[in-house]
């Protein structure tokens, strides 16, 4: 594990990493992303070789009160370890939801203290918890006590640049029993603007003995090595760079090669079909549009707006699958190098 000395070796991303009683097969993690990392996306990323995939954020109170959407978000398909991310502002509901997740097969429970979305922080959840460390620690303690599986925490550097309290909260989280900390190198007020501050994450590394995962603007293999070097982290988490290429975490970990143009086209169609199966045709058409858009943006950037809109909004799934494959096959060969 890399600790305080910058001269220590950078961790090997292909090496396993222990998180409590669980072992990750490598050190590249697919970030939890609402509306993105549903079961079809996680299944593909895992199949290619990501070290860990995390569910979309699950509202703890809604899960405990049996909301259908929340239950669908914690579903698994044989991925091990199965990591469920919970969000909430009340210790009671966080504990109840953690027990449910564990009972439904979660191997790791993650606490969301990083989401910057207004609808999340408006409920005093996500990154809003960093404004009240005592309250945040109450949630962590309740969650840890509620389950036997490892509990982890994902946070930002702080609410804003006047309150960079991630080291303080992370240290207290470890003392409360957290098994891993993930830090996105931005404050809440930055949202996703500017560049993530990889150097600032090192202040968290300096106070921890448990594994640290660094997150924010990790796109290339060079980025992954640089964020490890500058942060001292043990692993990296990738989010937006995996949109439109669910194999990307595995490529960074050295677990698979970049797919060929033919494979990109086939995989995009498979992903599309998986979403229709998972959500049903009506829901699948709606949820799949953004993924189809990401594939087209990455691998067919020359496609005109009207042609792109036609593929994304068509309601005939066979038409979409056929046009998507044809378009990607035409454009992917030129873009594969840029996607590395």
Describe this protein's structure:
- The chain is globular.
- Helix 6 packs parallel to helix 7, helix 8 packs across helix 9 and helix 11 packs across helix 13.
- The strands form two sheets. Strands 4-3-11-10-9-8-7-6-5 form a nine-stranded parallel sheet. Strands 1-2 form a two-stranded antiparallel sheet.
- The N terminus is likely disordered.
- It folds into two domains: 236 residues, Aldolase class I (TIM Barrel), CATH 3.20.20; 75 residues.
- Strand 9, helix 8 and strand 10 form a beta-alpha-beta unit.
- It is 45% helix and 13% strand.
- It is an alpha/beta fold and 340 residues long.
- The protein is built from 13 helices and eleven strands.
Short description:
One of its GO terms (molecular function) is tRNA binding. This protein is α/β, with parallel strands linked by helices and 340 residues long.
What attributes characterize this protein structure?
TIM Barrel; alpha/beta; globular; NADP; two-stranded antiparallel sheet; tRNA dihydrouridine synthase activity; 340 residues; flavin adenine dinucleotide binding
The number of helical segments is 13
Radius of gyration: 20 Å
Number of strands: 11
Low confidence ranges: 1-6
Globally, the shape reads globular
Please write the CATH class name of the largest domain. Answer: Alpha Beta
Average pLDDT for all residues:
91
| Element-level helix/strand string | EEEHEEHHEHEHHEHEHEHEHHHH
What order do the strands of the largest sheet run in, or round the barrel if closed? Answer: 4-3-11-10-9-8-7-6-5
How many structural domains can be distinguished in the coordinates?
A: 2
| Percent helix | 40-55%
EC number: 1.3.1.-
InterPro entries: Aldolase_TIM, DUS-like_FMN-bd, DUS_fam, DusB-like, tRNA-dHydroUridine_Synthase_C, tRNA_hU_synthase_CS
Protein name: tRNA-dihydrouridine synthase
Enzyme class: oxidoreductase
